[in-house]
Every structure is written in C-alpha cells, then in structure tokens.
Amino acid sequence: MKVYVTIMPEKNHETSPINFVSPNASIGNNVKIWHFAYVGNDTIIGNNVMIGSLTHVDYGVKIGNNCRIEGSVYIPPLTEIGNNVFIGPGTTFTNDPYPMSKKMVGVIVEDGAIIGGRSVIKPGVTIGRNSVIAMASVVTKDVPPNVVVMGHPAQIKYDRSQYDQKKINWESMN
Q1: CA separation (Å) from 68 to 102, 111, 117, 137, 153?
Q2: 109: burial class by Cβ within 10 Å (0-12, 13-18, 19+)?
Q3: What pLDDT digit, counting tens, does each position of 46-72 carry?
Q4: Sheet holding 44-45, edge to edge
Q5: Cβ contact 65:49 at 8 Å
Q6: Close Cβ partners of 68 (under 8 Å, ≥ 6 residues apart)
Q7: pTM of the complete model beyond 0.85
Q8: How far apart are CA 125 and CA 121, in angstroms?
Q9: What's the CATH superfamily of 20-172?
Q10: C-alpha angle with apex 138: 37 to 33, nearest 5 degrees?
Q11: Contact call for residues 51 and 78 (beta carbons, < 8 A)
Q12: How many whole angstroms separate alpha carbon 133 and alpha carbon 155?
C-alpha cells in the first residue's frame, strides 16, 4: 500500500501539521491529503484525489478517481463517491436518519457531480450523474442526473447544460 500525504509546511515553521491516514486504508496514486485531515479504516481512495485540510473521511468510505474534496468536509461511513466529483468546502454528508440509531445508510454520489460548499446531504440520498448541488443546499431526496438543485430543501432549478453555459459565460468575462 502506498500512502501519499502532502504536507505543506509554512515558511519559518519548525513543525509540520499532522494527518491521520489509517494503515488499513487503500490510497491510490497521486493523492494529496492536506493539513489535519483524517482517513479511516477500510476506506478506498482512487487515483488523482485531493482531500482538503480539516476533512474527515470516516471508515468504509469509497472515493473514485479524479475527485477534489475541499476543506472541512465530513464524509461518514457507507458514503460512496464516484469519479470526477467536486465537493465544496464545509459540505456535510450524513448517514443516520434517526440519531443515534443502530442502523445507518450511506449517500451515493455518482460520477461527475458537483456539490457546492456548505451543503448538507441527508442519509440514503443518491446524487445523480453530472448533477450540481448549489452552495448551502439541503438535499433531502434523490437528485436526478444532469440537473441543478438549490435551496432548503433543494429543488430542481435548471439542467446541467444551462449550468455549463453559465460557467462558460462567467469564465469569458474580463
């Protein structure tokens, strides 16, 4: 097993931040895990993944290839994240619909999904392929593929092609 932990020490500091990566976790190639992150037992992380500072990836989580998980994200046991997924800072996934229950259920995030910062995802929800969750949304039910949802609770506002066009327009502005 190869564990790649990138620690970015500040200039003029004598100590480096500490991460915990379980020796029972499976870590792919070119994985960057930033300051004060946690990766639990039996977690599987694919190739080319970035995990931000203060992120907690609990035990038994599956993360695909080419994912970017920003800082202060909580990913509980039973969560499955596909390939090419972006998860914004401060996002919280949950796995216990009736705390503290003896039964948990994970969240499934399909390939190509984008989840905006500070979103909260209810246990048992599936976030469809190429869907977008707007920042600070509360997702309480399944999200179909190729749509954009937002709000409390999150509701469909438009489709992914409209999001992609808005992104192109934004990037082309001076």
Answers
A1: 31, 12, 12, 19, 25
A2: buried
A3: 999 999 999 999 999 999 999 999 999
A4: 26-27, 44-45, 62-63, 80-81, 108-109, 126-127
A5: yes
A6: 49, 50, 85, 86, 87
A7: yes
A8: 7
A9: Hexapeptide repeat proteins (2.160.10.10)
A10: 15
A11: no
A12: 9
- The torsion region of residue 108 among left (phi > 0), alpha (psi -120 to 50) and beta comes to beta
Q: How would you classify the pairing of strands 126-127 and 74-75?
A: unpaired
CA 73 – CA 76 distance, rounded (Å): 10
Token pair 């979103």 is found at 119
Task: Examine residue 153 and say whether the peptide bond preceding it is cis (omega within 30 degrees of 0).
Answer: yes
Q: What letter represents residue 32's amino acid?
A: K
Tens digit of each residue's pLDDT (9 = 90 or more) over 138-147: 999 999 999 9
Q: How far is CA 150 from the centre of its chain?
A: 17
Locate 124 and state its tokens.
């048992």
Residue 157 identity (one-letter amino acid): K
Query: Tokens standing for 150?
Result: 């937002």
